[in-house]
Amino acid sequence: MAQKADLLQGTLDMLVLRVLSRGELHGWGITQKLEQLSRSALQVDEGSLYPSLYRMEGKGWIEAEWRMTGNNRRAKFYALTRSGRRQLESETESWNRMAGIIAQVMHSP
């Protein structure tokens, strides 16, 4: 069984942007995709996800539209904007750089 992981502050936005870079989804779909991609190690609750979505929408990184889901329910679908794609690229570069530095320190004698 996978151990649950706590998200580092600021990484939720990056992970949501990454999920949305694969296509638009509604909130529940985002949480399911994060859980799936992390092999159930990440479980994001609504109290964390929706403030993140609203914040990113306010910054212009994502846009939202109300539509019907496949099972005929009304849901807000989120999509990555051009600005969001640039933000994802920037955050990915920063994350990779920091992960490399941390790995270097952790593996040094």
What can be said about this structure in brief?
Helices cover 54% and strands 15% of the residues. It is of the alpha+beta class and 109 residues long.
Describe the model.
- The chain is built from four helices and three strands; from the N terminus they run αβααββα.
- The protein is an alpha+beta fold and 109 residues long.
- The chain has a single domain, classed as Winged helix-like DNA-binding domain superfamily/Winged helix DNA-binding domain (Arc Repressor Mutant, subunit A).
- A three-stranded antiparallel β-sheet has the order 1-3-2.
- β2 (62-68) and β3 form a beta hairpin.
- The N and C termini lie far apart (32 Å).
- The relative contact order is 0.17.
Which CATH class is shown?
A: Mainly Alpha
Structural class: alpha+beta
Largest sheet: 3 strands, antiparallel
Tell me the span between the first and last alpha carbons: 32 Å
Helix-strand pattern, N to C? HEHHEEH
Strand order of the largest sheet: 1-3-2
Total discrete domains: 1
CATH superfamily annotation? Winged helix-like DNA-binding domain superfamily/Winged helix DNA-binding domain
Nearest-integer average pLDDT: 92
- Low-confidence sequence ranges: none
Q: What's the tally of helices? A: 4
Query: How much helix, percentage-wise, in residues?
Result: 40-55%
How does the overall form come out from the CA principal axes? globular
Under CATH, the topology is which? Answer: Arc Repressor Mutant, subunit A
Q: What is the CATH architecture descriptor? A: Orthogonal Bundle
β-strand number: 3
Please describe the topology of this protein:
Layout lengths: L10 H10 L4 E2 H11 L8 H13 L3 E7 L5 E7 L1 H25 L3
Antiparallel strand pairs: 1-3, 2-3
